[in-house]
Here is the input.
Amino acid sequence: MPCLRIIFWMMLSVQLKLSSCNKDASRLFEDLLADYNKLVRPVDNNSETLIVRFKLKLSQLLDVHEKNQIMTTNVWLQHAKVSSNGTVEWAPPAIYKSMCQIDVEFFPFDAQTCEMKFEREELETVLGLDGEYEETVWIVDEGIDLSDYYPSVEWDILRVPGKRHEKRYPCCESPFIDLTYEIHLRRKTLFYTVNLIFPSVGIRFVRFVERIFVAH
Here is the structure.
């Protein structure tokens, strides 16, 4: 019984210390989210333009479905970072499925180009992309960060350029902006040569030899 009482009081004291240490964090959390509405743009005046700089970091190429023409990618980035000057860097992880025009005419020695397009929802928001300006289009040779990319078994990534398009329509004063990332893929021929071509040739050769022996 004395041992149980000692353990109980030790656990109670640890919980009290933890609760007292979290008071400041709880108060800060409540003050930051008081009267907060995620649908309102984070600007002081409605006339101000919200500037959003967009970066993409590819973690893994999960699948390229030739029949449905869908590319599935795993994009992983860090959590949001809030700076003292009010700048917020938000990088959520996500799995994207994007349409991809697949041409298998030269299978398994083919190369494909898939696109991932991101557009803004509000006209008062400007999407930024660092790069070279060419005829109303910003172009970045290495638009996607591949530093933490896990190589695919079936595909090699050749290039990942990014483009920022800006179009104007008679209906609106502000331009419509989208960021398009092109993922240039090349199928690994060695993978399909070992797993598809060699077995097929071997089976045909065995059948050919069987027919020769059966004929004799």
